[in-house]
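Running this now, will post back.
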Amino acid sequence: MNVFDLKRESSENIDRTDKAVILRERALNLAHKPCVAVQDSQAIEVLTFALGDEIYAVGSETVRELCSFKQITRLPCVPTFVLGIINLRGKIFSVIDLKRLFELPGTPFSEKSKVMILGFGDMEVGILADDVFGVQEIPVSEIQQDLPTLKGINEKYLYGITLERLTIINVESLLTDGSILVHETIEP
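Update: finished.
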């Protein structure tokens, strides 16, 4: 007897034990949280990049622009993960070093370093990457979202990890997190 047999059978033909078993199976099926909420045939498009020795990705729909690492103007009184600001064709962007935010080992900037302008809603920010590799599609079924081994700040900004250890960042969580916003004013 499967979980749908309760509808087909009248109450008189099913004893209490069978009803309890069927209802328990239904509850377990409904309570099971699937790893991915979309069909296996779907894929997401991501931009892959390096932070130190690790490979990360962000959804390509959040990438506004890529630019070479250029002169960054440092700012006083900002957290260490805020490198400063850049002027890109007359528009000012804050630049964040995710290695510092994620507490990854630091590597020096190089000619391969790029600033990725990411956006969600009205918020746009530059993210420093050691190298940018390109766009690829990842089947959603290959992304693990619930990883009990990840704790702390990484988990907060994590969308998932693929079997090839590609870490996908949740840009929405990153850009809407109030702890990365700087709202300090200096009084004269």
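The first helix runs from residue 5 to 8. More later if anyone needs it.
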